[in-house]
Amino acid sequence: MKTIDELVQSGVEGKRIFVRADLNVPLEGTTITDDGRIRAVAPTIAKLAAAGAKVIVASHLGRPKGAPDPAFSLAPVAVRLGEILGKDVSFATDTVGDSAKATVAALGDGEVTLLENLRFNAGETSKDDAERGAFADALASLADLYVGDGFGAVHRKHASVFDLPARLPHAAGDLIATEVGVLRKLTEDVKRPYVVVLGGAKVSDKLGVIDHLLEKADRILVGGGMAYTFLKAKGHEVGISLLQEDQIPACLEYLARAEKRGVEFVLPVDVLVSADFPDLKGKTPANPDLVASDAIPADKEGLDIGPKTRELYASKLADAGTVFWNGPMGVFEHPDYANGTKAVAQGLLDSPGFTVVGGGDSAAAVRILGFDENAFGHISTGGGASLEYLEGKTLPGLAALED
Ligand SMILES: Nc1ncnc2c1ncn2[C@@H]1O[C@H](COP(=O)(O)OP(=O)(O)OP(=O)(O)O)[C@@H](O)[C@H]1O
Ligand SMILES: O=C(O)[C@H](O)COP(=O)(O)O
Q: How far apart are CA 27 and CA 203, in angstroms?
């Protein structure tokens, strides 16, 4: 992969450079609750702007349905990006329409603009090659060069990630270079015991990585929304908790294989449950019940691991040589369900091993809950992306950057 330093050396002054970033940050209304992903890509943008390029930044935010949706606008991100860069960042209210064309045309050398959410256009995520290609063509007409630096999205075969770099001379940004450098070490040489902690809400996306992790890890601790499909597979009632019913046979197979291979597979022994999803805006008290993980009432959902599980997971991290953690242990955005995630974060800090936290929300959780991000070995901006990288899969957004 070409680096951006090589790109800069070849002369980028006056060139329009499309930077595919992952600015999918957590928002409460229009307030950014964690700007880690913006700060992570800012050095790449600053470097290109300092070299005199006209920088066109683009990203997705959330999962809108292929049409404009104000709840997923990147407008607040343009403001924050400008503050971080210490310069004005203009904002195009569309991706390839009149606003984008005019905003790009108005860019002076060294200036930066941010396009509106790429996923407001159905072509971005389409499974149809022609539809994705047509959107990539439209994006390509805005720029002369492409820099891929949205590590959190490199596992997506999306127009701006996969198809666009095939249409423009391209390079990998500094964030991607750093992420790949650290994660590669985890695929080559891990100090044992290697403990993997999995949680979060993207259960269908991430359950499959366990297949691979069973060959690599010594211990797998499961929490968050990920735990309930396993609990159900073991025959327990999980009420209205997050559940991936079609994955139950796979979960049973994973449990059996873990036992056969001597991989410790640890599930919650107690959980906090409620009939209602918590109020994340007003943060009114949730008053959850604490129940054993084999006694979840039929009308309630599990929203955090309980105190016995916190202690158990901390003990399983205490002697780790390497830890990879993706996915919060509960709905950490509400204080009544943040303790499981806090305990795991503390467990990583207390362990003697090399610790990697991966994922937009996982990394945000660490910072929002008051931990020092520099105390961890590495905080990755990618959750699904880092898991698939560790799995050894070919990631579309990395493959597309190769020469
Ligand atoms: N038991 C649960 N039920 C419902 N949601 C949960 C539960 N536990 C955690 N979550 C939610 O999971 C979300 C984060 O999951 P996610 O899989 O997106 O992790 P991530 O770190 O952001 O990784 P990625 O970068 O791949 O998105 C949080 O918003 C949190 O509230
Ligand atoms: O948060 C993430 O993992 C990335 O931004 C990718 O988002 P996606 O899972 O909606 O593709």
A: 21
Q: Which of 121, 147, 176 corresponds to the end of one domain?
A: 176
ipTM reported for the complex, 2 dp:
0.96
Ligand 2 binding pocket includes 383 (Cβ within 6 Å): yes
User: Is 311 contained in some domain?
Assistant: yes
* Contact call for residues 246 and 292 (beta carbons, < 8 A): no
Question: 134 and 247, same structural domain?
Answer: no
219 is catalytic: no
Whether 194 and 305 share a structural domain = yes
Choose the residue to mutate in 226, 271, 332, 361 for probing ligand 1, maximizing ligand atoms within 8 Å of C-beta. Answer: 361
386's CB contacts (< 8 A; 6+ apart) are 151, 179, 183, 324, 326, 356, 358, 359, 380
Residue range of the domain that includes 50: 4-176
Same domain, 111 and 198: no
Which atom of ligand 2 is nearest to 360's Cα?
A: 1
Least confident of 178-182, 293-297, 389-393: 389-393
Any atom of ligand 2 within 6 Å of the Cβ of 278: no
* Ligand with the closest atom to the CA of 231: 1
- Give the pLDDT confidence of 194-231 residue by residue, as tens digits: 999 999 999 988 998 999 999 999 999 999 999 999 99
DSSP 8-state class, residue 272: E
Give pLDDT, residue 282: 86
Q: Kindly state whether residues 163 and 215 are assigned to the same domain.
A: no
Ligand closest to CA 387: 1
Give yes or no for a contact between 155 and 396, defined as CB atoms under 8 angstroms apart. yes
In a domain, 184, yes or no: no
Compute the distance from residue 52 Cα to the ligand 1 centre, in Å.
39
Question: Is position 361 annotated in a ligand binding site?
Answer: yes
The CATH number of the domain holding residue 304 is 3.40.50.1260
Is 403 within the bounds of a domain? no
Note the pLDDT tens digit of each residue in 57-102. Answer: 999 999 999 999 999 999 999 999 999 999 999 999 999 999 999 9
In angstroms, what is the span from residue 117 Cα to ligand 2's centroid?
Answer: 13
| Mean pLDDT (whole number) for 372-390 | 95
Q: Of the bound ligands, which one is closest to the alpha carbon of residue 156?
A: 2
Do residues 166 and 84 share a domain? yes
Per-residue b/e over 43-71, b at no fewer than 16 CB within 10 Å?
A: bbbbbbbebbbbbbbbbbbeebeeeeeee
Q: What global pTM score does this model have? A: 0.94
- Our answer on whether the CB atom of 365 is closer than 6 Å to any ligand 1 atom is no
Closest C-alpha to ligand 2, atom 7: 153
